[in-house]
Design goal:
The protein has 495 residues and is mainly α. Helices cover 75% and strands 0% of the residues. It starts with a helix and ends with a helix.
Length: 495
Amino acid sequence: MTNHATRDRGAGLAEVQREEGRIEERSAVFKKELGLVDLVLTQIVFVVGTIWVGTAAKLGADQLFFWLLAILTFYLPLAAVVIHLNRLMPLEGGLYQWAKLGFNDFVGFMVAWDLWVFAILVMSAIGLTVVTNLSYALGPGARWMAESKGFITAFSMVLVGVLAGISIRGLSVGKWVHNAGGVLLLLTFLTLIGLPFVSLLGGKIREFHPLAFSVPDVSLSNPELFSKNLNIFSKLALGALTGFEYVAILAGECKTPARNIGRSVIIAAPIIALMFVLGTASVLAFVRPDEVDLIGPIAQVLSRGFGQFGVVASNVVALVILALIGRLVALMSIYLTANARLPMVAGWDDLLPPWFTRLHGRYKTPVNSIVLVGAAALALGLLGIAGVGMQEANQLLDNAAGIFYASTYVVLFAIPLFAARRIGLRAPIWLRVASASGALVSLLYIALTIIPIVRVESRLAFAAKLIGVALVFNLAGAALFAAGRRRQRLAGAAS
């Protein structure tokens, strides 16, 4: 019996290795543009969302406890699993390939589908978000821009067109957009983190304790508070501390990806953690928890802090908003570039039509897939702008996007737990424990998203609608997979 099991595992591993060789052969045509510095800056742009320092600041003195809990139970496990899987399988398509080789084609396809839908939903709001922020940066005279559907529509079309053009041109250009966004974000956070120290030295604030630590009430004696704490914890983990796996989608376009993607995670992880923790402390140095602006916490803090020194606060806020717009454009460029690779690699496996695999003759980028991603995001965004009674639908789609992303993490963490032998991964006990922790946090996030802890008219109706949205999208993905399987069978019969 043992010999049979050993032979089966050996045959499975050989099949995985043959598939890896085929993927690497298909990836050989790509230009290897991304070096270590590019990858580190891309990780920072993708992971660090600026709203989360405001969300965490709402916790007051308990913020450090929750950041550390999220880092220990999710962030570090995510980094460890991504490093191990990428070192073993540095393949174009990233998590799609890991899930496919670890489990089967269907799991891989559904992971790619959920990632694709999640990114489209995130990208759909780019035009409205940039125009709104731009109107604030330019002053009261520009507020009309955020209220004009015609202007937002035209701006969205131009912006998505430019980003699609950059993506078609390839990472030789795109990486500079991503790098610029990373530099702008780092400069913004350096200013945010340094401001309390300057204010303390200048006598503008009396005290500042960036690493103040307190333990919140985690007992079940107050169920409402316990549920609130769980919800905040899951949001910081799955909302703020995610994204290391996304860059691995571009592994076939990286220089020495087996080494550099893992190194980029190791370098970026502590920088990102410090940005979040110290950035939240800086918010609390100038703003009480109940006064935090959840939409623009960084602009709020810099406005107050520089205002104490007599600096024209409006100019500071405008510069910060412009820098954050630059980061947002870079983030959307990353989404578009990586998301376009998912249909391409599914096309390599004949699960989507060959149309998705066609590369630009000169730049060797999946031009058809890029155009489709841009068009889908633009179309969904314009529907949101039209917005006739669509607020509830938009909220449901936003929550569903979180479920789609968290579902891909459940699969990611399941690979070291259930598929390590199949792919030849030596998963020590600590990696299995870390994977179990990450999977449980992901499942907790899904449960808290489906079961609202805030006041709604009907909890059952809210959960049913959200589950319905997630099911409809995933059934559509399953139907696409079934159609791909039929094409495979017909092609096999014809040959």
